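YM 10:42: Carboxylic ester hydrolase sequence, as discussed on the call
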Amino acid sequence: MATLNHLTLNGRFIGVESEYMYHFRGIPYGTVTQRFTNPVMKSTFDGEEVDCTRYGPRCPQIKLDIGYLLREPEGQIFHSETEDEFACLNLDVAIPKTKRTYKLPVFLWVHGGSQIVSYGNGASKVGDVRKLVQSSVEQGSPMIVVSVQYRLNIFHVGDNPERKNFGLKDLQCAVRWVRDHIYGFGGDPDNITLAGESAGAALVHALIVAGADVRRALLMSGTLWMSPPRPHPMASSAVIEPITLRLHSQGYTLQDAPAAELIRIQSEIPIVSVFLQEAHELADWATSTGKVSILMIGDCEFESAIFRNGIENLSAEQIDVAFSKAGRSAEELKKLYHINPTRPSSCRAGALDLLNDIFWAIPTSKLKAQVEDAGGLVFRYLFDQPNPWQASARAHHAVDLLHLFEGFTISDPGALAVAKELRRRLVLFVAGQPPWPTTRTCAFGSHGNVSEIGRDEVTTRRRVTEMERLAKMPAKDIAAARAGLVVGTLSLHN
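YM 10:58: structure's back
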């Protein structure tokens, strides 16, 4: 058992002690008393003793087998997670066991999950922070790790143009809470690294654009170019109206329907992803780098695996038609990505390659250039180590989480070597030290190797030539082709 008396929060926290850390779980950082209202920061516990031995509830969400995409072996034991739309604004604070007990660097983790489910949150093995904290202690650079929960799906989307983006508002509240109170846990409020994966990375990008007071960030497999802020009418037609229509037939509204009914309807529609809506604070999202001056950013070799089942259900002719929507760029685009309606396998591979490039690889390079142009330092990486249990699944979307947190038992020597080196370099980054030269790209994998490579080798691992050609095409042409491929093809069950 671990006990911490926190002065500014006026509370006595009871947590869990393990070999390398003290873990305080489920701490409320904000309160929400009504659906679709802004969070209010939790600033005091009024002298009470707070039980932090159990993980806090997550936002209500559709049921998802998180092991499906990750190829996790059957029989894995997961923590039981409760759900509550009002109590899901909570976070976990992991404090390393170390002689140095003040002004430690802070790693603030935002989980992904398409903004509809919790994928890689602190309570799941996917986001288990123990190995990460252990690595920081063993390296002599101990750091505090904070994992945040926030509102998702319809509870995040809201119900009208003035009430929206509640997941982002929750995270803004959490960042302010950490800045105000992390010192009482031994952390340095001026040395916070904001980090996230997939939708979590896109939300970190949004936090940066919206003015989060942080200087360092890690974006894994995600930016706002992956899921840009969209006008409210799009959110209304894609999410709000379909749910509302079904609720009205039962005599409910979005405001008074039971949470369980909202989840059931979203599962039936189904809604597999939601997005941020346009807002004043996000107006400059495509150009702003906020206060961040040090960035670590990268992508996996086969991010578009989350579109695989959907794309494989398309015929070669359907894919050819989608590419043909690219206007004057259509023929060049088909040639670049080997689209030939008489070759179905080539068409499907080409479609996945295009989605991989426009959603992940190109945005990663674009944000890298923006931060560098603003005078910042950028550490670019490639994650190419395949799935440790099924190598034929390649280095798919989210496989880096298996290596970063290593919450599951991995026996593959190559995967273990990459996992250890990934954490080592991340700890350096969070501690304010360069994890590798900014003039090089760090390649994690394949075959258990980690190396710092130059542009020539990067071109053998990513479609650099194709992406350079894409950059010269009209954005509307690329968007038209993309739209013909993504509708109904995204799923975390791939």
